[in-house]
Amino acid sequence: MTSLSWAVPATGQEEARRKRDERRRRAARRSRWKDSVEAALWLVGVGSLAFMLSSGTVDVTSLSGFLVTMGRITGIVASTMIMGQLILIARMPVVERVVGHDRAARLHGQLGRMGFLVMLAHIVTLVLGYALPTQTGIWDQTWQLIVAYGGPMFLAWAGFAVLTIVVVTSLALVRSRWRYENWHAVHIFSYIAVGLAIPHQFTDGETFMAMDFAWWYWLTLWTVAVGGLIAYRVVRPLVRYFRHRISVAAIDTLADGSTVITLTGRDLLRMRPEAGQFFLFRFLQKDLWGEAHPYSLSRAPLDRWMRITVKPLGDHSARMNELKIGTTVMVEGPLGVFTEKTRTGDHLVLAGSGIGITPILAFLETADIDPGRCTVIARASSIEQAPHLDEVIAIAEQRGARVHVLTGPRGDGWSPAENPVRIAELVPDIADADVYACGPTAWVESLFADAEASGLSQKHLHAEEFSW
Fold this sequence. Notes:
GO cellular component, one term: membrane
Low-confidence stretches: 1-11
Distance between the termini: 31 Å
Strand content: 15-25%
Mean pLDDT: 83
Largest sheet: 6 strands, mixed
Number of strands: 12
Helix content: 40-55%
Keywords: 2Fe-2S, FAD, Flavoprotein, Iron, Iron-sulfur, Membrane, Metal-binding, Oxidoreductase, Transmembrane, Transmembrane helix
Shape: elongated
Structural class: alpha/beta
Main location: membrane
Cofactor: FAD
Oligomer: single chain
Radius of gyration: 26 Å
GO molecular function: 2 iron, 2 sulfur cluster binding; flavin adenine dinucleotide binding; metal ion binding; oxidoreductase activity
């Protein structure tokens, strides 16, 4: 374990108090916005069910009527979940700033799994409800729903079949055996499945056919969800491509095998990137243009310059050293809330493992640091395997931050096996700190468990993880 530190004087108590109060006000505003977004999603579903109940088409006087009613309820709930999924993954600025990309992606996945089960319940209850009074049998009734109700219903069944394939390939057992690129290619079909399922809600949904206002309400919601996805996942990247003209300016290779990619463009700060955030980069070069991958900024961006550092951990990242100078780049972002805006404590702890040090380096460069109240932890198997360590040390010295470089094989926790250490030993005032950590999921979880054992609450723990 190598430890480097600098003793510097503390700032005045009045200035420290002012900054603390501002951070807490900012956190409170973000919490209110977060609650508002979540409440809006709940109100969408509640409003839709309210329209159904007031439409006069609800029948619970018989078993078949009850099953059909439950089928309609589960259909509305499943559709609301799908809308929520689209909004969460559309990368709308308000969602990105309030929820954060990592959490939005996790919620997107959870809603997808739950929504599929609710959708399955929707199909089963409707088939049973329609089959009971006709006595035609389940399979015959299923066939009738597929072919006899017209094109929109047939498309909905086709969409469900496509979605089933997507869900199966997203299961952890299957996903763990797939390359990211293969999984992502199949996952794209989920949007096709949604598109196929939407029309039947307007042509066969009794709630929305019975009430004009409900029909327009439902159309507005789908327009926001689908329109937001198209606007921020398709239109905005194209606009930024032509506006900013980002291209590869230089390529370099570090001792640990990481590729340093310097990018240049026009008016890059108009995208409002912040140190600690990442972009989805699509390099428009043969055999690379079809995939967009997330890479964190490894230095604070400038108006005509930004930099990323990529560790060869997968097929796409391993080919970054093949990029040609002048290759144009399409970007989505900036993404993530791994920024100072989520900070509330006085002491700043920045911890990175391996390539996870890159957003830490950018963060360190621009963070609001009170001298002597910032600690940087760089974790690597060896000094050679710690990318940009020289820059970390140089910037930390300029900014009055303490640096702890922990090297060696990992033990049961997050620190080296031969020299285990607790985070409270490196940060004496850990109880008054915010910990930002980036690295492999298991390492981050171990570090956070140590921080919580030292008295920190989860709201003071901020992660940027390498997982998919």
